[in-house]
Amino acid sequence: MEDAMEFAKQKSSEVEETIKSVTTRTTSRSSSNKRLNVEELKEALLSKIATVERGASASEEDKEEIDLLAQKVENTQKRKNALETEEINGKWELMYTTSASILGLTKPKIFQPSGPIYQTIDARNLRAFNSESAPFFNQVSAELTPTTKSSVDVQFKKFGLFGGLIKINAPESAKGKLDTTFVDEDLRISRGDKGNLFVLLMRDRSANLDAEY
Asked: What pLDDT score was predicted for residue 4?
C-alpha cells in the first residue's frame, strides 16, 4: 500500500512539473507573439507616416488611416502611467503631427520647418523643450504640471528665435495639455487638448533639462 501511495505521489509531482513547464512555455510564446504584434503595428504606423511629409501633405483620408493605426498601437499598452516610466525621458524627434501651427501650414512653403523638429521631455524636473531646425531654428521651453499618470498641463515659458539668440517671455495664455497614450523605448504617441496627434521617435535617451532655458 505504501509503495502504491509513494508511486502515486511521484506521478502527481511529475504531472505538476509538466503542467508548470507547459504553462511557462505558453506564457513565453504569448508574450513573444504580443511583442511581435506590437512591433508590426508600429512598423505599419511609421511606414504610413513616411509618405506624408511629417503630416504636411496628409489628406483627410491619410489622417484617418494614421489615427486608426495609432489607436491600434495605443491599445496594446494597457498601462497609462507614462510619466512614471523612464522611457518618456529624453530627446524625441517629431515624425508626424496633425498640428497645422507646428507644421506651419498657413505659411509659404519656404518658411515652413524643413529640418528635424525635436521635443525633449524631462519628467523628473517637469520640463519640456521644443526646438526646430531650418529655417528659423525656433525654440520654446515649458513647465509641466501632471494631471494624471499620463497627462500634463503645459505652460510655455520662453520662446527663442534663431537658436535662442533672441528670447521672449511667453504670455500666461500660452498653455496647453498633453496626454501620452503610448510610450516604449523608441516610440511615443501623444494627443493634445485641441485633438492633435503627435508621433515621435527617441533620438537621445541621455538628454535632460536640469538647467532652465
From this structure: 47
Q: 51-79 burial, b for 16+ CB within 10 Å, e for fewer?
A: ebebbbebeeebeebbeebbebbeeeeee
- Please answer whether residues 128 and 209 qualify as being in contact, where contact means their C-beta atoms are separated by less than 8 angstroms: yes
pLDDT at 16: 56
**pLDDT for res 15:** 46
Structural domains of the chain ordered from first start: 36-204 (2.40.128.280)
Query: What's the start-to-end Cα distance of the chain, in Å?
Result: 82
Per DSSP (E only), the strands in the chain are 90-97, 117-122, 127-132, 139-146, 151-161, 166-169, 175-183, 187-192, 197-204
